[in-house]
Design brief:
D-amino Acid Aminotransferase, Chain A, domain 1, Dna Ligase, domain 1, Rossmann fold, flat, alpha/beta, 7-stranded mixed β-sheet, 7-stranded antiparallel β-sheet, 31 strands, 5 domains
């Protein structure tokens, strides 16, 4: 944390922090046992006695603390014991005599300089369970009171902050003010590299007081600034090229030079396609040339490189002579291969900069741009067209996201696997997506982070106008080790990363499927105006489980039904309906029940979002009838068509009502994955929206939607996100 750290004594640490408003227990300083007795007598209540000094940092580990001393005599005897434990290395010592603060709950607060993200404020559950629980929250400095209050609301152990065993609820404002004080230290004292307040004791009346403090001074780690910026011309060449050149085109179907050329041609790319081959062979109908110099000038914008690393410097020079402005390198043997590879990579980046070529990769999978019908990659798949743009440090996850797009029908606009990200990284791509009219939401996968603060500032700038969804590898200790070996970069502390995302309005997803579903929701649903959700279900159990999910996650509100809304629903459902939220139709549906009740709910001014459960039930029965031996006789053909038509109507009603009201209406059923051909999920896909595989998944996606909507609203109001 520091280049040459210096730990202040407890007395010095408290004096510094008290000047910023941190509340401490009443205490005095004594130089001998008699002085300790005198101050204990003045306090008139049980005290703690500690041995302090400039050379003493960790008192507890050395047994230099005595607690619960009920009489002045006890304090004096403890003081003598402590003075006898002093060593020459401790230097000049003193005694701290402080009141014993009563309280059964403890918090921990602090400040540290993260090597990736800079000054960071922390709060969490303290005491003996602090490490075991790991219930801590981080935010980058500066921290306002609103942000600090948001940090407290994010702690998992909320019950400890409320009324507890006869004690009052914690004074959250008082704790928030401590965090703001630490933030001020971070911004006003650049020599302070860490602060540890452990514990903050919560008194029975809910007020908080610090009883220990440790401040470390030194030199903060300086993060390198990101200076490389790429031209719009380079990105246009990458995503909207007039022509594409595949170098190393091959007639062997197992080679990258064959697969990439095949994928470009097979998926309908509209520009001209060229190839190089040392023998000048015809590959997939393309007449290749042995030398780039034989190609025409001014008609090729993108080169897709499938040649060995050693050939690439001369290759780039030849491409520059032809006016090529972007290069995607699949070639390996660079930064991932060790020191010599890193040297070659740096030289290639410098050359590309000199030549004015946007360099993507090396060691990458490829680039997809559905507006240009471009699938320049060494693997499948090619996704349907849409408005999600992907930037990933892993090619595998580019494929994963495109596979999800194919499964769900929610399409992709752009996708790039950054590979080694030698010159073009995730932040660069997301920044350009922020300007791209074909992109509604950016979806990023990151592992190793070389400059966390730069990454967050740049992604946060995009998030101010368009949603940015991030999933991070290396979230656990095991994952962090894997990420380091995979990318050559150390994964940042996950909890700190999460705090950075929240501060910058970036949506953090825990898993790849959650990340795609969040991005798909942003791409296809309007932002909610508030957090009030109504669940509409045709089966009670689904509604109960989904209601549990809303309550458990604590982001959305399962609103009680207003009297006027309940009365209007009464006109459409039989008396046995649930009469509350979730709205359980209880099997009372007629032909028009679901669209009508959904409309009543969605149009009510108090409702901000709707989750509809149960689509596909009728079509599922229709499938069994259609596949059974009695179809199409006995009237089955007619009822099968009716059932399928009904479920399609329900999906269409959800989409049209969402468009009409400007409210998100999410449809969920396990049939989305169990039987995608079911008329219900199929109709949801046809409407351009995501059919969620469960109510729980819909709740999580809607929570992300609401959190981002709140970020946008607070940002427009000039308040920082909490």
């Amino acid at each position: 944390m520091s280049a040459s750290g210096n730990t202040l004594s407890e007395r010095e640490s408290k004096r510094l922090l008290a000047s910023y408003g941190v509340p401490f227990a009443e205490e005095g300083v004594a130089t001998d046992a008699a002085g300790a007795r005198q101050f204990a007598a003045q306090l008139g209540r049980p005290v703690a006695v500690k041995l302090g000094g400039a050379g003493i940092a960790h008192k507890t580990e050395r047994g230099l603390v005595r607690l619960g001393l009920g009489t002045p005599e006890n304090a004096e005897n403890a003081a003598r014991e402590l003075l006898d434990l002093a060593t020459p290395e401790d230097g000049e010592v003193h005694l701290l005599v402080a009141e014993m603060v009563k309280g059964s709950r403890e918090l921990i607060a602090g400040l540290f300089c993260d090597p990736q993200f800079g000054p960071t404020v922390m709060v969490g559950v303290g005491g003996v369970l602090a490490e075991a629980l790991g219930d801590v929250v981080f935010r980058p400095a500066p921290v306002t009171r609103d942000v600090a209050m948001g940090m407290l609301s994010q702690l998992r152990t909320q019950k400890l902050l409320g009324g507890f065993r006869g004690e009052a609820a914690v004074d959250r404002v008082m704790v928030a003010d401590v965090l703001v004080a630490l933030s001020r230290v971070a911004t006003e004292r650049p020599d302070v590299v860490s602060v540890d307040l452990n514990p903050l004791i919560i008194r029975p009346d809910g007020t908080v007081v610090a009883v220990d403090a440790l401040v470390e001074t030194g030199t903060r780690t300086s993060l390198p600034s990101q200076t490389r910026r790429h031209s719009a011309e380079g990105f246009r060449a990458l995503f909207e090229p007039r022509g594409v050149l595949v170098t190393g085109a091959s007639t062997h179907p197992g080679k990258f030079g064959f697969v990439s050329l095949h994928n470009i041609l097979a998926n309908g790319y509209r520009g001209t396609v060229h190839g190089t081959n040392l023998s000048g062979e015809t590959v997939l109908g393309i007449e290749t040339v042995a030398d780039i110099d034989a190609l025409p000038e001014g008609v090729i914008d993108l080169v897709f490189v499938c040649t060995p690393a050693a050939a690439n410097p001369d290759l780039l020079r030849a491409c520059a002579r032809k006016g090529i402005k972007a290069a995607f390198l699949t070639s390996a043997g660079y930064g991932e291969a060790g020191e010599e590879g890193r040297k070659l990579e740096a030289e290639l980046v410098a050359l590309a900069d000199e030549l004015g070529i946007l360099l993507a990769g090396p060691n990458g999978q490829g680039v997809v741009s559905t507006p240009a019908q471009l699938c320049a990659q060494i693997v499948a798949p090619y996704p349907p067209s849409g408005s999600i743009s992907v930037a990933s440090q892993s090619g595998n996850f580019v494929s994963s996201f495109m596979n999800y797009a194919r499964q769900t029908g929610v399409g992709i606009s752009r996708a790039v696997s950054a590979g080694n990200a030698a010159a073009l990284g995730v932040a660069d791509l997301v920044e350009w997506y922020g300007t791209d009219p074909q992109t509604k939401v950016s979806l990023a996968y990151v592992e190793g982070i070389s400059n966390g603060r730069d990454l967050m500032n740049r992604l946060g700038a995009v998030a101010a106008t368009k949603p940015v969804v991030v999933v991070k590898g290396g979230a656990t200790e095991g994952g962090a080790r894997a990420a380091a070996s995979h990318t050559g970069a150390l994964a940042a502390n996950d909890a700190v990363f999460d705090g950075e995302c929240r501060a910058h309005g970036i949506i953090r997803a825990a898993t790849v499927d959650e990340a795609f579903e969040a991005a798909a929701t942003f791409a296809t649903q309007p932002l909610p105006r508030g957090r009030n959700v109504v669940i509409l279900t045709t089966a009670g159990g689904w509604g109960v489980v989904t209601a549990d999910a809303i309550t458990r996650e604590g982001i959305l509100d399962l609103m009680p039904l207003p009297d006027d809304l309940r009365a209007e629903i009464d006109t459409k459902l039989p008396p046995r309906w649930s009469r509350n939220n979730p709205v359980d139709c209880a099997g009372g549906e007629t032909r028009d029940t679901i669209p009508e009740v959904m409309g009543i709910i969605a149009r009510h001014p108090s409702v901000d979002a709707v989750i509809y459960l149960g689509i596909g039930i009728q079509a599922n029965q229709a499938r069994m009838m259609r596949e059974g031996r009695f179809h199409p006789d006995h009237g089955l053909e007619r009822i099968v068509e009716y059932h399928e038509r009904q479920d399609a109507r329900f999906a269409e009603a959800a989409a049209s009502l969402s468009d009409e009201t400007g409210k998100p209406i999410l449809v969920a059923t396990e049939l989305a994955v169990a039987d995608p051909s079911n008329a219900g999920p199929a109709a949801v896909r046809a409407s351009g929206r995501l059919c969620y595989p469960s109510g729980n998944r819909a709740v999580t996606a809607l929570g992300h939607l609401y959190r981002y909507a709140e970020f946008v609203r607070t940002a427009r109001a000039g308040r920082p996100a909490d």
